[in-house]
């Protein structure tokens, strides 16, 4: 009897244990399946889009943008911040170079919030259709301190044939000069400068402009009320100085009229700023110690803020406060033009080196804003990564437009190639030497044509 009495409990325990294991296993399987479903359909910032069901119509592809850390380097909420996105991605090449962007200037690239449908105002500073490298300014409505933003980039939409309206520089940015093509300001009036002696150079962000004091280089803008700053302002720029030992003006409007402001490197190689008050006295930071001496042949982000209500004039170098002048003085308005690279009636005041990304706003930006601006622009390529490409379902109309666009581009390429071959063949058979113009004569002609063109545009 004992063996039988011992056998029944063993069978019961085994059955109960098996049932428990099956129940736990089933629950675990459900949990894993649920997790896989959530991962697959809601995704992660670096691999998948947050919401698969919501997408911009007409676009063929998109990628999520994963930021490696919080962009906001301060401790306050930043609103309407112009955020720089810099990519170099094979899928963002033009379709003629093996990519998927359909517009030669990248106009079919759009940035949205993580919901996939809220388009952010954007402006393309530069786009290389061959390499897929692009620098895009995006207006972030808010950057929260300590939080990583989530964005999405869309591309491949042949229906888009024009650049989106530039609404990035709207929060009291009076003018923004990227200096990668010409001296056209990016403000509402799009001022064009009369330039003398400047040349293109590799800038901090895309292209920049090289200035040489010995050559008298500068860019002059006609008087604009928007750039006549008084109660508060912020001026920032990227500079690459190649000389020292004298005052070198970056930008300002001290001229033949009283008043005005200026931001410059002084004789000690430190960042300085000045303005003229109602009595004609020039206020600057000459007697304020502790300033950092800027190294030559190195990029620096420089900024100056002024606030009448706070009673201060303050400089920043590479996002860090440099020195502060507490003052009750205020700038006086002037009728003088704005100059980049020198002060108009002051000899030997020209900047020698490269200047890029000048921004003038009639608003006092905070220390958090300027440190974030420096961090975002110093090396933007390492701040974020693009996820794997997601192919989107396109409607029949969009598919047909993309097909026709690619067909038209192929036809245009074939026509251009044939035209070049015909031209080459004609020259070879004619026996005539090609018309040549000496470099100096061509340079003079280009300068005269440029001055004539700008003068006509400013008179309109």
Give a nutshell description of this structure.
This protein folds into three domains: 42 residues; 119 residues, Immunoglobulin-like (Sandwich); 188 residues, Jelly Rolls.
Report on this structure.
It is a single chain. The protein has 460 residues and is an alpha+beta fold. The chain folds into 3 domains: 42 residues; 119 residues, Sandwich (Immunoglobulin-like), CATH 2.60.40; 188 residues, Sandwich (Jelly Rolls), CATH 2.60.120. 24% of the residues lie in helices and 29% in strands. Strands 7, 9, 10, 12, 17, 18, 19 and 21 form an 8-stranded antiparallel beta sheet that branches. The protein has a 7-stranded antiparallel beta sheet with strand order 8-11-20-13-14-15-16. The longest helix has 41 residues.
Q: Mean pLDDT, nearest integer?
A: 82
> What is the percent of helical residues?
10-25%
Strand fraction: 25-35%
Which structural class matches the secondary elements? alpha+beta
Shape descriptor: globular
Can you name the CATH architecture of the largest domain? Sandwich
- How many domains? The number is 3
Which fold does the CATH topology of the largest domain refer to? Answer: Jelly Rolls
- Report, as a whole number of angstroms, the end-to-end distance: 115 Å
Tell me the name of the CATH class of the largest domain: Mainly Beta
Contiguous runs where pLDDT drops below 50 for at least 5 residues: 1-19, 28-48, 433-441, 450-460
Summarize the main sheet.
8 strands, antiparallel
User: How many alpha or pi helices?
Assistant: 4
Radius of gyration, in angstroms, nearest whole number = 30 Å
Total strands: the figure is 23
Instruction: Spell the H/E element sequence.
Output: HEEEEEEEEEEEEEEEEEEEEEHEEHH
């Amino acid at each position: 009897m004992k063996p039988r009495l011992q056998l029944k409990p063993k069978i019961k325990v085994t059955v109960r244990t098996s049932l428990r294991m099956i129940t736990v296993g089933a629950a675990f399987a459900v949990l894993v399946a649920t997790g896989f479903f959530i991962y697959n359909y809601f995704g992660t910032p670096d691999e998948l889009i947050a919401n698969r069901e919501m997408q911009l119509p007409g676009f063929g592809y998109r990628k999520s943008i994963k930021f490696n850390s919080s962009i906001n380097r301060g401790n306050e909420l930043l609103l309407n911040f112009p955020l720089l996105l810099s990519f170099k991605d094979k899928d963002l090449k033009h379709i003629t170079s093996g990519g998927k962007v359909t517009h030669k200037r990248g106009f079919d690239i759009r940035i949205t919030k993580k919901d996939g449908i809220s388009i952010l105002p954007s402006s393309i500073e530069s786009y290389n259709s061959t390499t897929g490298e692009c620098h895009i300014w995006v207006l972030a409505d808010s950057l929260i301190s300590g939080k990583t933003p989530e964005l999405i980039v869309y591309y491949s939409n042949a229906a888009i044939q024009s650049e989106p309206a530039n609404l990035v520089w709207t929060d009291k940015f009076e003018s923004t000069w990227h200096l990668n093509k010409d001296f056209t300001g990016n403000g509402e009036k799009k001022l064009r400068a009369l330039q003398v002696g400047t040349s293109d150079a590799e800038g901090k962000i895309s292209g920049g402009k090289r200035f040489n004091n010995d050559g008298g280089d500068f860019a002059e803008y006609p008087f604009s009320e928007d750039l006549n700053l008084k109660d508060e302002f912020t001026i920032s720029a990227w500079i690459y100085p190649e000389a020292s030992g004298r005052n070198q003006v970056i930008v300002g409007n001290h001229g033949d009229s009283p008043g005005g402001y200026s931001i410059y490197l002084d004789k000690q190689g430190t960042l300085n700023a000045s303005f003229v008050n109602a009595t004609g006295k020039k206020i600057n930071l000459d007697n304020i110690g502790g300033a950092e001496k800027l190294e030559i042949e190195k990029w620096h982000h420089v900024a100056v803020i002024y606030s009448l209500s706070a009673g201060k004039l303050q400089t920043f170098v590479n996002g860090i406060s440099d020195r502060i002048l507490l003052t009750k003085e205020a700038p006086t308005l002037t009728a003088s033009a704005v100059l980049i690279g020198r002060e108009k009636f002051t000899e030997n005041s020209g900047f020698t080196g490269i200047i890029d990304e000048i921004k003038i706003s009639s608003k006092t930006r905070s220390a958090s804003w300027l440190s974030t601006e420096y961090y975002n622009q110093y090396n933007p390529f390492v701040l974020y990564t693009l996820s794997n490409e997601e192919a989107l379902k396109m409607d029949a109309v969009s598919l047909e437009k993309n097909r026709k666009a690619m067909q038209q581009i192929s036809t245009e390429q074939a026509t251009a190639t044939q035209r070049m071959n015909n031209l080459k063949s004609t020259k070879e058979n004619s026996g005539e030497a090609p018309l040549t113009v000496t470099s100096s004569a061509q340079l003079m002609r280009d300068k005269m044509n440029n001055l004539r063109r700008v003068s006509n545009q400013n008179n309109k």
